[in-house]
Hints:
alpha+beta, Jelly Rolls, 2 domains, 7-stranded mixed beta sheet, 4 helices, globular
Amino acid sequence: MKTGxxxxxxxTIASLPPYKQYTIMRMKPILAISLFTFALAGIxxxxxxxxxxxxxxxxxxxxxxxxxxxxxxHSINAWVMDNAGKNEEGMMFxxxxxxxxxxxxxxxxxxxxxxxxxxxxxMHNTLIPLDIIYISASKKVVSIxxxxxxxxxxxxxxxxxxxxxxxxxxxxxxxxxxxxxxFDIPASLKWAD
Length: 193
């Protein structure tokens, strides 16, 4: 049995001239396809948002500050790692798709770190090879190490450093960054702990 509203709709369409009935009947599949397309677009947006969250990371990229660095005439958008927790996680668990060639990370420290065997970076749980660039307090490159995927070897600087910048492997060579290269690092970047 049909409700009054359903009967009213039928009577309304039925009372229209035949050419209008035909137009309305043709529009139903178009409306259904449009709604289906919008639903898929919504699912696509949800998938993109879900991909932006890396379930293995504590500090999601979207929640990190980004600083614009310049070296050898090239700009680098660097996620700012300004406390002990962020420094520990670094680029762990990031995939190649999550990091563009113009992106990297800058690690800040509360004071100058000695370039000795007790201080350095490793590639534990790091899924992409990296250039690890040690930078002095005067913002000049001290040395560059090549980090291999998931390698727990400590990679030391060849001198004291206050900053470390990590880029995808080969990027420093491609951009002409080498020992002695001056980095433009915003003075506003400070250790947060």
